[in-house]
Specification:
The complex is a heterotetramer of chains A (275), B (116), C (658) and D (446). Chain A is mostly helical. Chain A has 3 domains: 52 residues, no CATH class; 173 residues, Four Helix Bundle (Hemerythrin (Met), subunit A), CATH 1.20.120.80; 42 residues, no CATH class. Chain A is 74% helix and 0% strand. Chain A is built from 10 helices and no strands. In chain A, helix 4 packs across helix 6, helix 7 packs antiparallel against helix 10 and helix 9 packs antiparallel against helix 10. Chain B is mostly helical. Chain B has one domain. The radius of gyration of chain B is 19 Å and the shape is flat. Chain C has one domain: Up-down Bundle (Cytochrome C Oxidase, Chain A), CATH 1.20.210. Chain C has a two-stranded antiparallel ribbon. Helices cover 32% and strands 15% of the residues of chain D. Chain D is of the alpha+beta class and 446 residues long. In chain D, the strands form 5 sheets. Chain D has a 5-stranded mixed β-sheet with strand order 3-2-1-5-8, with no helix packed on it. The chains are: A mainly alpha (275), B mainly alpha (116), C mainly alpha (658), D alpha+beta (446). Chains C and D meet through helix 5, helix 10, helix 11, helix 12 and helix 13 of C and helix 2, helix 3, helix 4 and strand 7 of D. The complex binds heme-A (2 copies), dinuclear copper ion and copper (II) ion. Dinuclear copper ion (CUA) binds next to loops of chain D.
Chain lengths: 275, 116, 658, 446
């Protein structure tokens, strides 16, 4: 490669990778990697673009920049909804309580009080005061799954490193480890959702429920997407198509994976640890 | 215009765009991970100390940010990619999104919660 | 798609004529057999640009028809042409269609067509994603408009405030269509933004430094950044609404303690950058047109660039000026009022630099130039009224009145659309190989200027006399009769003027064909930027040889040499310098079915969310199939591509047919 | 056919209406014109802009627009004179000049921002700060609670001096814990509640405490001040002040669904003395028509209680809590959208009804251009066969045709959606006689 590389070269090379950017589903990138053999080496291993950064990588960073605003908005919505929810709960807003505990809770009230806003408010205020003291979260459980997700980030960098070094055995081990840990995390989230739902935190019943499920659910969807990409990488690796030339593919999936992890770092503290 | 922030001539690098040379070693990765793990543990413990108000929140936020920086800086190689010297500083565009998000949503909060 | 096929503009596409002159096309790429298939599967940025433009024109007719219905209703007091509900749908859909399906895609059309040409690239960074962006936009837009037939359009206003957008207050499906359609279209904007930014930053020809990029490229770059960061905010707002309306969440349930201002903040954090991303491409266009026809360089190139960047930055700090009366505290209002006013500074720099470019120039007043000057003057009027809104206390009288309606039509129509039409006249020969008729162009311009000012000028008066917007009717006794009537008359003149763009395209095409399709030449306007250094219409592979750039307006400097200080002498014509268009061995990305296929799954999912979750099954299946098909298809390898065989022959046939 | 007993209050209302008509006539027939300020707040807004800021804007306009046109004309080259080799001087820019026109607008705007920000803060001043010595209500200046709903306005006056909110939980303070939907904090139902026509005293700032029961609306009386949104779940303060007695019109300016265009307001300013009289009359309970003396109205009252009282309140005895016919705390579902209907206790003392879009009284010769004719209710309308009630010397007549049509089929006069609990339903079952009786009853509610 030389410094006279022109966009016409890169235009092609990049198109190879084009698929990978589809909605950041870098898993798609993986199969295209098999084009590697289809062109002369001089064509694809040359990343001399205007900025000296590969198109794919630039695109991925841009996409992640945009994701910052997405998660930023979701986290803000969560914080706002939670604050609002707590204020109303403590104030004994009967609608909030009904949303949280179901209509039966209201029905179950002593006769004289039912239907009278004032009294319902009073009674529920006490219930609410109790309810808000006792957090629904199971911190040790979530800490464990957060830890697993953090660890998966380590596995991810190690997979990348192994790929760069052409150590395919370790590459596969670490990729598989990353995917497995991601799946454990998702499994934990599903379990958690089920428990919360049983305990009465419905999606629509309260601001808090809506915001909690939407924020963590969105994150979960991102993790799931990452797992799919990792599986695709694994398949490629077993087919022998994920050689050290394509380390960038692994790096891109890694960027995405770490980003999702970093978002969880924020969510864990903001949602779970800060009451 | 001085050369820096707004780029000049297209640069062409003979190191691969993701050169192998400037990334942390495997040991370093493990070290970072150890720190992350310890921080997570401290975070969780802290949340059990029964503190409230700033005493609870501020350390948690600080630890959260440290974790954020560690993952972004080392695992995502931002620490290396953000360096002006290697010509790959356009990953700063990500940082731009991040800063923008923080700033904008902070203002939203200010206008909500402090009723200003 | 029928739209595109029937559109007179879409027919005379570059390649055919070009290939006729280079019969073998030199680059034997897999080609679709029929014209239609070609358009559906193309990944060529130029064709995609043309499709964006055609789709926008189609939606302009829909949005315009809705606007005319509004004006008929308002022409007289207590009119009953439209019912209250029909009127509410009409203005909501008018605003939504115009903003999201007309102005934004026209910007994308110019960006797609021109960016690679102006930076000297072969195509955009990710051609298939480019096609995907377009189809997603188109399907989202079409889906939004099917609401007309499926129970009525959205009726919440284009910013659709909560809680009125909730299921309780707006039980019809209109708002679901608004929500889902725009979510889908937003995916296209986001992928488009990533793609185009990468293209500009990473695929410039050698020597094309950032500070040698044409102003249009700069403005589009800023635009795409605004999209990149603004779209996700709207996406979140819409997802919250989707969860509320379709899945029973309660983000905007006030009785549970929600704050309706959350929607306003999210919408306008998106919405204000949105208005700048509608105007900046137009600013870029006139910054190309004015120097070309004034025959002198743009005045103060660095200021033009940095003021554009400054607008992009500042655009993020002013969103709450749409909320001056929403009940923010006085501190917020003061801060946003202050910040908003200062956006006039970089914008003023642009306006004054354009005037300075006109100063001392030798102006060729053809249609493109007239529209460019039209932008400078008409936009300024809108900008000035903008500043009067920025003064928050006076905005408490102005907001939600026709004074605002006047403001944003002056900036949107008098700014963005005038700029776009200028660009259309300017780059038409590059895209299609012939110029648009000047006589009709002049009529086009004057009808529009007259109609435009007659329509929207009086709205300033109406607004200050107290006429609120979004009113399906008003009373005789309110004193609004006269100016409403004038505005309604004006809107019909304006509609004729606007339609004349299409009429002119048709007439000019007919005349060109009758004359035996004469070659307009690579450089009909004595242009300054790289796209004029190749044949017209632009060959499919853009450049035979990647250009080497040594200066701003490099092409111009090749044509003219400086003899003494400031004086230039022509040394060559554009035609002499232009690349012949016979590039050897150019390897181009192959067309693909997958972008359109994958995009087509989106509306299926969308309808599923609205009508029946069962539809999600085929939708998601389609999506998965699309993703895998896409991933497994090599981007540009002829031999593996199943429709890649024997296309040389088809190519010849295609050429023969023309 | 029955006779109205014009009360002093009614005469005054009519005088107001006449005055309103007169004022809007001399105001160039543009009742919402923002330039014609009729109070210090609105004047403040105009003074901020005129002459300096409007002047600067006009100047920029002239410079750029006419400058641009002049440059174009001066520098144009006719096609036949075009010479490709004759180029103008290639000026690339002039940094000094450009910095100049960056700085000058910046300075201008910085200067403009000073009065702007001062005005922003000044507009927030409460009436306690501005007319501290006023004793209009509860020994202080007047505050009025303004509640928007689809598509009419309710006004509350704190006549029992308890504040606007009730101490629901009985802990002695009204605070965030006294929550009740539809309002964030429960309303004090013992206050004076009126609908669709705001009445204020002249010469002092009245603070408006604005909120909404359903979607966002916006309160705007252009001649008295700018607007402020009525947002459900939030309480916003704003203020208005009128210099002279008269009727001032407004229009809801935040899109609020179907009949947004039919949601207007009417604010009547009275001299302080008249205002006190008005208050006294409004706080009195409604008269109950006498079965013998006013049989028609008495029948109307029966009909009203059977058909209308499920939504509308008429307070007949201020000590009887059951008078509050529709307690919107009772039924969340029903109250979800329509929630409440205008309080009709002193209906006939207002000059407007139904979101202030119809007048209750019509000038004898005003029928040529009022909404009445525009709605197609010509004098040939069979409904018109019922003669107008004579109203003594005022020269105004009860707008009986519209009132009757409203009661029998309100959605035909104002787009509403009663099926979805939006607005008032139609009553096809009411006969002509029923309608006559109902109107007669409503007229006694003065
Ligand atoms: C292309 C789109 C576009 C553009 C470019 C602008 C440009 C500006 N807009 Fe506009 N705006 C809209 C589209 C746009 N707007 C839309 C669609 C709405 C309504 C949305 C809705 O409610 O539906 C809106 C609404 C809107 C509001 C809210 C009004 C309300 O609802 O109450 C405000 C308030 O501040 C505002 C301000 C401005 C300002 C200060 C500018 C400035 O950028 C203008 C700057 C330009 C100039 C000032 C002219 C040139 C300058 C000079 C020659 C220098 C010298 C000038 C001076 C010293 C004054 N706009
Ligand atoms: C770029 C954006 C754009 C453009 C170009 C226009 C163009 C026009 N607009 Fe619009 N407008 C908006 C953006 C735009 N508008 C927005 C954002 C709103 C706010 C919406 C809201 O409040 O939510 C708005 C609101 C708005 C209103 C206020 C409605 C209200 O508040 O009650 C009015 C009223 O006159 C109006 C009129 C017009 C007219 C007459 C045109 C004319 O320029 C149109 C000219 C006509 C044509 C270009 C069409 C030619 C077509 C035909 C002749 C029909 C042929 C038909 C077929 C073949 C199907 N617009
Ligand atoms: Cu109420 Cu508009
Ligand atoms: Cu704005």
């Amino acid at each position: 490669m030389t410094d006279t590389a022109t966009p016409s070269d890169t235009g092609l090379d990049v198109e190879d990778l084009d698929a990978a950017a589809a909605d950041a589903a870098a898993d798609l990138d993986a199969p295209t990697a098999n084009n590697a053999g289809d062109h002369g080496a001089d064509e694809h291993d040359d990343h001399a673009t205007s900025l000296g950064l590969s198109n794919m990588k630039l695109a991925m960073w841009l996409f992640l920049g945009s994701e910052c605003l997405l998660f930023g908005a979701l986290i803000s919505t969560y914080l706002l909804s939670k604050t609002r929810f707590l204020t109303e709960l403590v104030a004994g807003n009967p609608n909030v309580i009904e949303g949280l505990m179901g209509e039966e809770a209201v029905e179950a009230l002593p006769d004289g009080t039912r239907g009278s806003i004032e009294n319902v408010g009073e009674i529920f205020q006490e219930m609410a005061a109790e309810a808000s003291v006792e957090p629904i979260f199971d911190i040790p459980f979530t800490s464990f799954s957060s830890f697993v997700l953090l660890m998966s980030s380590l596995a991810m960098v190690l997979a990348h490193k192994a790929t760069e070094e052409g150590d395919y055995k370790n590459q596969r081990i670490w990729l598989a480890a990353t995917a497995t840990m991601g799946s454990i995390f998702i499994g934990g989230q599903i379990a958690e959702f089920t428990i919360f739902f049983r305990e009465g935190l419905t999606f629509g019943g309260s601001l808090f429920g809506s915001a909690f499920y939407t924020l963590t659910g969105f994150h979960g969807v991102h993790v799931t997407g990452g797992i799919v990409m990792l599986m695709a990488l694994l398949i490629l690796s077993f087919r022998g198509k994920l050689n050290s030339d394509r380390a960038e593919t692994v790096e891109l999936v890694g960027l995405y994976w770490h980003f999702v992890d970093v978002v969880w770092v924020l969510i864990f503290t903001i949602v779970y640890l800060i009451p | 215009m001085a050369d820096s922030a707004v780029s000049d001539a297209p640069v062409s690098h003979d190191d691969h765009a993701h050169g192998e040379h400037d990334h942390p070693t495997e040991a370093a990765y493990w070290k970072i991970f150890a720190i992350l793990a310890v921080l997570t543990a401290v975070e969780v413990l802290w949340s059990y100390l029964g503190l409230s108000g700033p005493a609870l929140v501020v350390p948690l936020i600080v630890m959260m940010l440290v974790k954020f920086v560690l993952v972004a800086g080392w695992f995502m190689h931002l620490k290396y990619d953000l360096s002006i010297l290697n010509g790959r500083y356009f990953t700063i565009l990500f940082a731009f999104g991040l800063v923008l998000a923080v700033a904008v949503y902070f203002v939203v909060f200010a206008s909500f919660d402090w009723q200003i | 798609m029928a739209v595109i096929e029937n559109n007179p503009m879409a027919l005379p596409v570059g390649e055919s004529a070009n290939r006729a002159s280079n019969p073998l096309g030199v680059f034997a790429r897999p080609r679709a057999v029929t014209g239609l298939k070609d358009w559906l599967t193309t990944v060529d940025h130029k064709k995609i640009g043309i499709m964006y433009g055609s789709a926008a024109m189609f939606f302009l007719l829909i949005g315009g028809a809705a606007a005319l219905a509004l004006r008929i209703q308002l022409a007289t007091p207590n009119s009953s042409f439209l019912s209250a509900d029909a009127y509410n749908q009409a203005f909501t859909m008018h605003g939504t269609v115009m903003v999201f399906l007309v102005v934004m895609p026209i910007g994308a059309a110019f960006a797609n067509y021109l960016l690679p040409l102006q930076v000297g690239a072969r195509d955009v960074a990710f051609p298939r994603i480019n096609a995907f962006s377009f189809w997603v936009f188109l399907f989202g837009g079409l889906m939004l408009n099917t609401s007309w037939f499926l129970g009525g359009g959205a009726n919440g206003g284009w910013f659709n405030y909560a809680p009125n957008n909730g299921i309780i207050y707006s039980p019809s499906h209109g708002i679901d269509f608004w929500n889902v359609g725009l979510l889908i279209a937003g995916i296209g904007s986001l992928t488009g933004a990533v793609n185009l930014i990468t293209t500009v930053l990473n695929m410039r020809a050698p020597g094309m430094t950032l500070m040698r990029m044409p102003v249009f490229v700069w403005m589009t770059l800023v635009t795409q950044f605004l999209l990149l960061f603004a779209i996700p905010v709207l996406t979140v707002a819409q997802i919250l609404l989707l969860m509320d309306r379709n899945f029973g969440a309660s983000f905007f349930a006030v009785d549970l303690g929600a704050d309706p201002l959350l929607w306003q903040h999210l919408f306008w954090i998106f919405g204000h950058p949105e208005v700048y991303l509608m105007i900046l491409p137009a600013f870029g266009i006139v910054s190309e047109v004015i120097p070309t026809f004034a025959r002198k360089p743009i005045f103060g190139y660095p200021f033009m660039v940095f003021s554009g960047v400054a607008i992009g930055f500042m655009g993020w700090g002013v969103w709450a000026h749409h909320m001056f009366v929403s009940g923010l505290g006085p501190l917020s209002v003061s801060a946003f009022s202050f910040a908003t006013m200062f956006i006039a500074v970089p914008t003023g720099v642009k306006v004054l630099n354009w005037l300075a470019t006109l100063w001392g120039g030798k102006l060729t007043l053809n249609t493109a130039m007239l529209f460019a000057i039209g932008l400078v003057t008409q936009f300024t009027i809108g900008g000035i009224s903008g500043v009067s809104h920025a003064i928050a206390p006076s905005d408490t009288q102005q907001t939600d009145t026709y004074y605002i309606v006047a403001h944003f039509h002056y900036v949107l129509f008098g700014g963005a659309l005038f700029g776009f039409i200028s660009g259309l006249y300017f780059w038409w020969p590059k895209a299609f190989g012939y110029k648009l008729n000047e006589g009709h162009g002049k009529f086009n311009f004057w009808a529009m200027v007259l109609g435009f000012n007659l329509t929207f000028g009086p709205m300033h008066i109406l607004g200050l006399q107290g006429m609120p917007r979004r009113m399906h009717t008003y009373d005789d006794a309110m004193g609004f009769n006269l100016w409403n009537f004038v505005a309604s008359i004006g809107s019909f003149i304006l509609a004729i003027g606007t339609l004349w763009v299409l009429v002119n395209a048709f007439i000019s095409y007919r005349a060109w064909k009758a004359e035996g399709r004469p070659d307009v030449g690579p450089d009909p306007w004595d242009g300054r930027t790289l796209e004029w250094a190749i044949q017209s219409p632009a060959p499919e592979h853009n450049f035979d040889v990647t250009p080497q750039v040594t200066a701003l307006d490099d092409f111009w400097h090749q044509k003219y040499n400086e003899v003494e200080h400031g004086k230039l002498k022509r040394v060559a014509t554009g035609a002499e310098l232009a690349q012949p268009g016979n590039g050897e061995g150019v390897h181009l990305p192959a067309p693909s079915y997958w972008p359109i296929f994958l995009s087509a799954s989106m509306p299926v999912i969308g309808y599923g969310v609205i009508f029946s979750l069962w539809l999600l099954v085929p939708g998601l299946l389609m999506m998965t199939a699309g993703l895998f098909g896409w991933a497994l298809e090599p981007a540009d390898d002829l031999d593996i591509d199943d429709h890649g065989h024997g296309h040389d022959a088809d190519d010849h046939e295609l050429v023969g047919a023309h | 056919m029955h006779n109205l007993r014009p009360t002093p209050m009614m005469k005054r209302s009519l005088a107001i209406a006449a005055l309103g008509l007169f004022l809007s006539a001399c105001a160039d027939d543009k009742p919402l014109n923002t330039f014609e300020d009729r109070g210090p707040r609105a004047k403040q807004l105009n003074d901020l802009m005129y002459p300096w800021i409007w002047g600067i804007m006009a100047l920029v306009f002239v410079l750029v627009v006419f400058g641009g046109i002049a440059l174009t004309i001066k520098n144009r080259v006719a096609p036949e004179d075009f010479d490709p080799d004759d180029l103008p001087e290639q000026v690339h820019g002039n940094p000094k000049l450009e910095w100049g026109w960056t700085a000058v607008p910046a300075v201008i705007l910085a200067v403009i921002s000073i009065p702007t920000i001062i005005t922003i803060w000044s507009l927030e001043e409460t009436n306690d700060e501005r007319n501290a010595d006023s004793t209009t209500l509860c020994d202080g200046p007047l505050d009025v609670m303004v509640i928007g709903q689809q598509w009419w306005w309710e006004y509350r006056y704190d006549t029992n001096c308890n504040g606007f909110f009730e101490d629901v939980n009985g802990d002695g303070v009204v605070d965030d814990t006294d929550k009740e939907w539809p309002l964030e904090i429960a309303l004090d139902d013992d206050d004076l509640v009126v609908a669709n026509q705001l009445v204020i005293p002249t010469g002092e700032q009245v603070d408006l405490i604005i909120t909404s029961r359903d979607v966002i609306h916006s309160y705007w009386i252009p001649r008295l001040n700018g607007k402020r949104d009525a947002v459900p779940g939030r309480i916003h303060t704003w203020n208005i002040e009128a210099d002279a007695p008269g009727e001032y019109n407004g229009w809801c300016t935040e899109y609020c669904g179907l009949s947004h265009a039919r949601m207007r307001m009417s604010a009547v300013a009275l001299t302080p003395a008249e205002f006190q009289d008005w208050l006294a009359e409004q706080t009195a309970p409604a008269d109950i028509p006498n079965e013998e003396a006013d049989h028609l109205a008495w029948e109307g009252r029966q009909l009203f209680q059977n058909n209308c009282a499920s939504c509308h309140v008429v307070t007949e005895d201020e000590n009887d809590p059951d008078d509050v016919a529709f307690d919107y705390g009772q039924d969340f579902e029903a109250s979800l959208a329509a929630r409440a209907a205008p309080n009709l206790t002193h209906f006939a003392s207002r000059t407007v009804f139904a979101g202030a879009i119809f007048s209750q009284y019509r000038g004898v010769d005003a029928d040529d251009d009022d909404l009445f004719t525009k709605l197609g209710l010509t004098d040939d309308d069979p409904a018109n066969d019922i003669p107008y009630t004579e109203l003594g010397e005022s020269g105004l007549q009860l707008n009986e045709v519209q009132l009757r049509r409203w009661i029998s089929n309100a959605p035909s006069m104002k787009a509403m959606d009663p099926d979805n609990l939006l607005g008032m339903p139609a009553f096809p079952q009411l006969t002509e006689e029923d309608l006559e009786a109902l109107v007669a009853y409503l007229e006694t509610l003065d």
